[in-house]
């Protein structure tokens, strides 16, 4: 029996939970059937869109499909806004301050830090705690200016904000905590983070007044806020510093685990990736990492709210009217396997271009730290895959949406 036939035998309230489970356990055959026979699938909770062209339309049309679902989680932060002056101004400021010229140096630093952290573990190692979370936390401390922060606190602040914004929406059913518990943990984390950041800004502001150089992100944010030439004050600088941390840790960890996992699942693929890593050709190795993320993305979909009565897939044989306020999921995991847009989609091809995927989002809300993430993730994965002294066990999700532990045993 096909997926759609099975769904039609279920009560309406059981259909989305079943589909959500298949999206985790059997995504590619499910998506192939949906693209072929029901590319726009309307359910009581939401509407799933699975073809490439329709996903692009949703993510490009922020006037029709907005990020309003983020507002209850992120308040006035610019990521919860679409085409606003504040969105463009603050995003532009943060991108300008991210030191893109130093990306090669950042990558080399991350690889060296991953090597150091792994070398300190002489037996079995938890790759999540040690590397995929450990390296981004150390990166935030070293490059962004959080050097005196407690690593456990940085992890907690990033984690609960990610859990609430991305995995605690009305259509979710979190099993690792209740919806209210997740919100409470995010709010408590933000109170702690705000207190820390205010103190950090005061300290670094004093160092700048004493003649110090703005060598990290926090210091440059202070200089920008003090300049007074833009609508960007100290309060907004603190808010954006928090956003910088929140976006850097958990998403990097999730992506690094997913990429390494897909590569490790095939011995031939693993050996080819190791050969590329040893060759020193970063572009060749990165192809393995980002192709693996096409097969297992950290975010299989992006959710939006319809801002008006409209039609999905307008002008096609699957055109579907949806009302204002409808929740829409652009299932980009499916879109990256749509044969109308992707050549030989079922083939693992490390020569594909990262730009042809949705790994870092699409459109107005493309990832702020795309350039940093595109260096940091492969640096971590490379060190993990080149460790021939250990082999991976199963990833432990602890009933949640992200990798929480990944034990690598001595060979």
UniProtKB/TrEMBL annotation:
GO terms for molecular function: heme binding; iron ion binding; monooxygenase activity; oxidoreductase activity, acting on paired donors, with incorporation or reduction of molecular oxygen. The keyword Oxidoreductase applies. InterPro entries: Cyt_P450, Cyt_P450_CS, Cyt_P450_sf. Pfam families: p450 (PF00067). Keywords: Heme, Iron, Metal-binding, Monooxygenase, Oxidoreductase. Transmembrane segments: none annotated. Belongs to the cytochrome P450 family. This is Cytochrome P450.
């Amino acid at each position: 029996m096909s997926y759609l036939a099975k769904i039609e035998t279920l009560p309406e309230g059981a259909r989305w939970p079943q589909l959500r489970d298949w999206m985790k356990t059997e995504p590619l055959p499910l998506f192939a059937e949906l693209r072929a026979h029901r590319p726009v699938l309307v359910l009581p909770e939401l509407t799933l869109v699975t073809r490439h062209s329709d996903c692009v339309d949703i993510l490009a049309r922020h006037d029709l499909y907005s990020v309003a679902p983020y507002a209850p989680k992120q308040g006035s932060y610019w990521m919860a806004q679409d085409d606003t002056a504040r969105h463009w101004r603050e995003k532009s400021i943060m991108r300008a301050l991210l030191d893109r010229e130093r990306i090669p140096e950042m990558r080399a630093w991350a690889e060296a830090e991953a090597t150091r952290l792994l070398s300190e573990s002489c037996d079995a190692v938890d790759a999540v705690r040690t590397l995929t979370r450990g390296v981004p936390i150390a990166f935030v401390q070293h490059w962004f200016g959080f050097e005196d922060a407690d690593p456990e606190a940085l992890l907690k602040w990033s984690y609960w904000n990610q859990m609430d914004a991305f995995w605690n929406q009305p259509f979710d059913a979190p099993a690792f905590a209740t919806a209210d518990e997740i919100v409470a943990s995010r709010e408590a984390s933000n109170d702690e983070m705000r207190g820390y950041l205010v103190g950090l800004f005061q300290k670094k502001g004093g160092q700048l007044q004493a003649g110090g150089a703005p060598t990290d992100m926090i210091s440059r944010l202070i200089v920008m806020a003090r300049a007074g030439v833009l609508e960007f004050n100290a309060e907004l600088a603190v808010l954006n510093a928090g956003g910088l941390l929140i976006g850097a840790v958990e998403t990097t960890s999730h992506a690094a685990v997913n990429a390494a996992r897909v590569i490790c699942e095939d011995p031939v693929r693993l050996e080819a990736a190791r050969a590329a890593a040893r060759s020193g050709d970063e572009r060749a190795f990165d192809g393995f990492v980002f192709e693996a993320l096409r097969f297992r993305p950290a975010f299989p979909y992006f959710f939006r709210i319809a801002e008006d009565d409209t039609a999905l897939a307008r002008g096609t044989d699957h055109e579907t009217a949806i009302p204002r306020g409808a929740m829409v999921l652009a299932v980009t995991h499916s879109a990256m396997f749509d044969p109308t847009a992707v050549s030989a989609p079922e083939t693992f091809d490390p020569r594909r271009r990262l730009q042809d995927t949705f790994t870092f989002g699409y459109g107005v809300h493309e990832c702020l730290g795309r350039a940093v993430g595109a260096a940091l993730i492969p640096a971590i994965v490379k060190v993990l895959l080149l460790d021939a002294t250990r082999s991976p066990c199963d990833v432990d999700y602890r009933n949640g949406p992200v990798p929480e532990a990944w034990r690598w045993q001595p060979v």
